[in-house]
Specification:
- Chains A, B: Its EC number is 1.1.2.4.
- Two copies of one chain form a homodimer.
- Chain A is of the alpha+beta class.
- Helices cover 36% and strands 19% of the residues of chain A.
- The first copy, chain A, has 17 helices and 19 strands.
- The first copy, chain A, has helices at 9-19, 27-32, 54-66, 119-126, 143-148, 156-159, 162-165, 194-198, 232-244, 257-266, 286-302, 314-325, 327-332, 352-366, 392-411, 430-434, 437-448, and strands at residues 23-24, 47-49, 71-74, 91-94, 101-105, 110-113, 131-132, 166-172, 178-181, 207-214, 216-217, 221-228, 251-255, 277-284, 306-311, 339-342, 345-346, 372-375, 380-387.
- In chain A, strands 12, 13, 14, 15, 16, 17, 18 and 19 form an eight-stranded antiparallel sheet that branches. Chain A has a five-stranded antiparallel sheet with strand order 5-6-10-8-9.
- In chain A, a hairpin with a 4-residue loop joins strand 5 and strand 6 (110-113).
- In chain A, helix 9 packs across helix 11 (286-302) and helix 14 (352-366) packs antiparallel against helix 15 (392-411).
- At the A-B interface, strand 9, helix 8, helix 11, helix 16 and helix 17 of A face strand 9, helix 8, helix 11, helix 16 and helix 17 of B.
Chain lengths: 462, 462
């Protein structure tokens, strides 16, 4: 403990008796669990626990409850709003050893997994079944973390977010009790929907120790494409018309001209013009995909699309989506040593063109570099506002721009976070977004965690 | 008040000053609000309020809160588990005058409605737009009531239940505060999912005063059909294989041979054999529907299906689905003067065949008449156990059978209520279904309604 006595030394001793060397107070382990991918100030846990079973999580929680010690669940640390930072120290519960696929029910199109299973791992294990898990936030996140943050990503437009893709949960409560929410039945009207209450609760109400997730059959045909547009409004209008026409696209992603410049710098082999692009994917039968592609192409060409490139082979598609998933790093290539302040606006599709136009005006006014990418089929888009983390005035200007952009989303009937979650980064907007409903969230937090031990200081102050 | 002084005469006086003749204490009005379609003991409210605006609901709630008077929201009274029965008297808040469609956002595929709008009314008002609201529980229920009970029905297999079809709510809390949950954006990760908490909360946590619901484009082609099977297992196996093949059917309903006999008695023009049937509907493009129909037919014929009848004209489809929707009344035709004790099992699709087989064995053992119908694509099916309501032993036998059938669903990993809700009728199963999670529901109830004034005695005891 770096020579200091932890205020939680009693519980640490008790946990070490329970977990042996799966309880760590080493500096490097604690450091890894004191930060995430966000632009947030790190804070160390007093210790990190590596449970392997639900029963161990339950005993850890009961001990921490008895000792009034805060706990923060940790998946793989890919969250973007400071969710996993132990603001008050205490125990970081790392679920990476709870990484077993417990059951695959092929006939029911569902799987039961431990929270440390990652999405790529699950899809590897599913490969022989012809089924797939569809939620894809880019990072190879843990499913527990994705559930806790209500994650989504590139193909939510077709298959839904974690909200639609989790049927049931096992959760350990603040005092160590283990509950099960929901069943594997496809629908239920049996009382309060606790599954959805815990989805997106970011570890503030309980720790997810198992999830039942939906699976889909792999489509007969997958076709991916990119195309360039003369300007962002043309690309956005194409998206809006495609969505409104009911085209069941699996992915439809916007990357603006600034982002494309970053991509070219980051990956010179990409060889794509520095113009706004859509990255697309179509799933279906052979005939269905052909029909979708033809309809989409007609809409896009009416809006001046050019430079269509197609990828039907798996390796070409993989390359295309890896380029998209590396957008955050590509953005940083625009400015050496810069960090990105990330925004996460999501608006009704009818307001998307205005939201993006106003957002780009705000960037220009601020005089900052802020590439834009988005899951625009859902009305969701991100900026990565590039700043020198050492320049206080720049950081302040970036935060002011992020705030302006978030309020534009609210003014247009949207949300400040489509998929990244609240953590600490978006807490300042919660009153503006929710009004008095935030008090109801606080009531629920107090009811389920009266001692405020579960990831304290996240989502809502109590 | 039938010559008695109501314990709530103060609040009634205050409400009359507020609402004038939209506050009724007349015997027939109170009687109408003391019962639903369930086999439940009626209990009268002290008065019935007919608010027209959210502000009026808020003032009613604030007054009732100040006077410690229970309130029960009332849609059109088509619920099936005693949800709207004011067990402790107080004020029944009838939302039938809150029946305006507030906005239709064609570009966003959503509509904002007051809770008294019925599903048929909404679809009438949408007709010119080419859009449709899809959740269809049979009865022309109010959307507020459907949201409060997490209703679904015949085409949930394709378009989802109220859980998937409500994006945002306006809710009046126990003390009269008005909150908004969710936004019109298609997804959000902004804190606790209060929308899903209130969906299915049956008026025990707040009163829904506006809903934002999802709409879908009307399909280019709709084709409906019925076909007969040699026995129930053949029909069920057809359903399972069709679902597992990913056939995107809009409706797939099972009616067993007992139900079909009731249909023949109730509607002699129907002219269908007294054999188990599937009632089906396919939505899509011209080519897509043809493809689905061919695939389905192949599966069904492998299982001995015959007597295919097709309905593509609107009036023929309407007749077919009216016959299905009248199944409850048709069941009663099997026995003059009988009432139905209704069950609502829902299981994983892999367990459906076993669930139905064991359920039909239990009926045979009980020696009762209990036709079976089901939204079998979701794994959901109902019995209507016919009893003479005056014969205490029969009623007891029917309740014992209903209990056995509900436990079969639980034993197979399902739920005792796929879509009807808990009300009072299913409260006795909640501990078996939820275990310790029921205590979390009670914690939430106490947090949001500390005085236990909101539809007290429903879902969970506090």
């Amino acid at each position: 403990m770096d020579g200091q006595i932890s205020p939680h030394s009693d519980v640490i001793e008790a946990l070490r008796a329970e977990l042996g060397d799966r309880l760590s107070t080493g500096a490097s382990i604690r450091d890894l669990h004191g930060r995430d991918e966000a632009y947030s100030t790190p804070h160390l846990p007093d210790a990190v626990a590596f449970p392997e079973t639900t029963e161990e999580v339950s005993r850890i929680m009961a001990l921490c409850h008895a000792h009034r010690c805060p706990v923060v669940p940790f998946g793989i640390g890919s969250s973007l709003e400071g969710h996993v930072i132990p603001l008050q120290g205490g125990i970081s519960i790392d679920t990476s050893r709870m990484n077993r696929v417990l059951a695959v029910h092929e006939a029911d199109l569902d799987a039961v997994v431990q929270p440390g299973v990652t999405r790529k791992q699950l899809n590897e294990e599913l490969r022989a079944t012809g089924l797939m898990f569809t939620v894809d936030p880019g990072a190879n996140a843990s499913l527990g973390g994705m559930a806790a943050t209500r994650a989504s990503g590139t193909n939510a437009v077709r298959y839904g977010t974690m909200r639609e893709n989790v049927l049931a949960l096992e959760v350990v409560l603040a005092d160590g009790r283990v509950i099960r929410t929901g069943t594997r039945a496809r629908k239920s009207a049996a009382g309060y929907d606790l599954t959805h209450l815990f989805l997106g609760s970011e570890g503030t109400l309980g720790i997810i120790t198992a999830l039942t997730v939906r699976l889909f059959g792999q489509p007969e045909r997958i076709s991916a494409a990119t195309c360039a547009f003369p300007d962002v409004p043309a690309a956005v209008d194409t998206v809006i018309l495609a969505i409104q026409s009911g085209l069941p696209m699996a992915r439809i992603e916007l990357l603006d001209e600034v982002q494309m410049r970053g991509m070219a710098l980051y990956n010179p082999d990409l060889d794509m013009p520095e113009a706004p692009h859509l990255f697309l994917e179509f799933h279906g039968t052979e005939a269905g995909v052909a029909e979708q592609v033809a309809q989409f192409r007609e809409i896009a060409e009416e809006h001046g699309a050019s430079e269509f490139r197609w990828a039907t082979k798996t390796e070409d598609r993989t390359r295309l989506w890896e380029a998209r998933h590396n957008a955050y790093y590509a953005a940083q290539a625009l400015r050496q040593g810069a960090k990105g302040v990330v925004t996460d606006s999501c608006v009704p599709i009818s307001a998307l063109a205005e939201a993006i136009a106003r957002t780009k005006s705000a960037i220009a006014e601020a005089g900052l570099i802020a590439p834009l990418v988005g899951h625009v089929g859902d009305g969701n888009f991100h900026l990565s506002i590039l700043v020198d983390p050492e320049a206080a005035d720049e950081v302040a200007a970036a935060k002011a721009l992020a705030s302006r952009v978030s309020h534009i989303a609210l003014e247009l009937g949207g949300t400040v976070t489509g998929e990244h979650g609240v953590g600490t980064g978006k807490m300042g907007y919660m009153r503006d977004e929710h009004g008095d409903a935030l008090d109801v969230m606080a009531d629920i937090k107090r009811a389920l965690d009266p001692l405020n031990l579960m990831n304290p200081g996240k989502i809502v102050e109590v």
